[in-house]
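Action item from last week, closing it out:
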Amino acid sequence: MTLLASTSIDAQTVLDAVGLGAVYALIAVGIGLVFGVLRLVNFAYGQLIMAGAYALALTGGDPAWVSILICFGVVLGLAATMELVAFRRLRGATPARMLAATFAISFLLQSIATLKFGAIGKFDTVLQQWRQPVTIGGLHVAKITIIAVVVGVVALGGLAFLINRTTIGLQMRAAAADFQTARLLGVRANVVIMFAILLSGVLAATVSVILPISQTPLITPDYGLRETIFVLVGVVVGGIDRLRTATLGGFAIGLATGLLGGFLPSVGTWPFTSGVYLDSAVFALVILVLLLRPEGLFAPRGRPAAERV
């Protein structure tokens, strides 16, 4: 196993970090949508990404568009099942119980994946040609980095339009502001919640396609778990109770992870390199930010930190 050390952050590293930040921003939006209407931190969100990635890996012999359609179908079906079987029955529960339930769902799905597919993992070969770089102004930029940024911008722009300019979007905003009052005013709770969960599932499926190309193509039962933990930390740093600040927090943690990953030593051979000190450095930076800005890095000043939780 080789130790690779980097002592500077160049433009190449910045571009790769921006691509990772775009992927993390998509995960943050998916988590933030569910939190907005249910006040539920869905720790099992990473298993939606894992299920989509497995669907791609298991259908690698089919045309790419068929694999992607199956991926989206699997993720959306699993997201809807979570809502109907677990989340809907827990709506009156305390936030702590709901969070514990998502932990249980997460580890249950990991165990099922281990029993079904084994612990070694499977390779996702769909669209791996997007790893190939293109040269822009002397920089070698992987196609997937460009695609991740474009998809992130389009998805976030489309979501902003949907939330601010459509009826279902306005109902989601009303439910996020005051769920009980919104129901009294005629907002159909089940429809709004299911729509938000399916929308978060679309984002999870999108990440399932992008992440194995931009990071590692080896899909294991805990795939997506690390990214979910990082993004959850990011949305807390950004301000979890607002979609905009949560998204910025997710992008910021992805950008910081990419930059620190390019600077700190790593082990292995690409694309299976891993940071030796990366996790420690990221979480140390998070602690520093929360000490300096306990209300959230992008939250309005003066708002009590307790409102975020």
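Closing note: The domain at 3-308 is CATH 1.10.3470 (ABC transporter involved in vitamin B12 uptake, BtuC).
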